[in-house]
Amino acid sequence: MDSAPSLTAIILTYNEELHIKRCIGSLRPVASRIYVVDSFSTDATLEIARREGAEAVQRKFKNQADQFQWALDNLPITTDWIMRIDADEYVSAELATSMARIIPRAPASVTGFYVDRLVVFLGRPIRHGGFYPMRVLKIWRTGLGRVEQRWIDEYCVVKQGLVDYCPGDLIDENLRDLTWWTDKHNKYSSRRMIDLLDRDLKLGLSQHALSGTASRRQVIYHTIKTNIYPTLPPYFRAFAYYLYRYVFRLGFLDGQQGLVFCFLQAFWNLFLVDAKLYEARRMIAGTGVDSFIKHLQDTQGLDLRPLRLENESRRSA
């Protein structure tokens, strides 16, 4: 394999002792520098990360988009390229080989690279249901990448230039149990509810536009999610999305794991979002927006007010 590209990998962590060694180990052939941005883990995450050769900093967590953009703006990155990777993801051997070969030889016109993200759920790769290949922008030239400021499903864009492709899979395989997984997605449903509610009521809680180049799949998904999905009847749209994933996109071919994954991802989670939207609108009608925002901050620890004020200030500037 060729020598590692001039690339800094950035990993956001909170209590990731189960995954961080695997992630860092997979990055060694392709990253000349690895940063862990930790949200004050209470386990051995930082000890393991530093032992494995990563540099670590700590910062209070607000959401993924805010944390990663902070990393882009504040870490002393001196390499030519940056890669975004989650702690429960790892670079496959095929992807490592293509990155080491392609990235150092990229012409100046190329400013980013897509990779294929493969989810492994309950021990099985999910290759159907439209979930694979999930081509995402994960690598870009230093100084040219930005992150859309949303509460969930944010994506990265590059400001200019062409985006190429590195063959091979970035594997997303979380080793925790299903109880942890459903708890995480219950929290995600609250964040998704905030984004949908913000589009209706213009509360200034998210940034909904970011110019630049993202993956074609991300742009299509974003367009459907923002312009089509919100116009469909609540609750029905969750069921329709599940049928689309499981039946029309052949999610059933992934066996029992495919059934559970499609049901929880495409039906249970989105149905819960609609139920939380109904609850939120009732609360806002009864006690007002400020009371509702305070409720979210107090009960779920979501730091909503600063972003709202930032967006209001940006609009008035």
TrEMBL record:
Keyword field contains Hydrolase: no
Domain named Glycosyltransferase 2-like: residues: 9-117
Annotated Gene3D superfamilies: Spore Coat Polysaccharide Biosynthesis Protein SpsA, Chain A (3.90.550.10)
Keywords: Transferase
The keyword Transferase belongs to this UniProt entry's keyword annotation: yes
Taxonomy, superkingdom: Bacteria
InterPro entries (UniProt xref): Glyco_trans_2-like, Nucleotide-diphossugar_trans
GO molecular function: transferase activity
Family (UniProt): Belongs to the glycosyltransferase 2 family. WaaE/KdtX subfamily.
Listed name of the protein: Glycosyltransferase family 2 protein
Organism this protein belongs to: Bradyrhizobium rifense
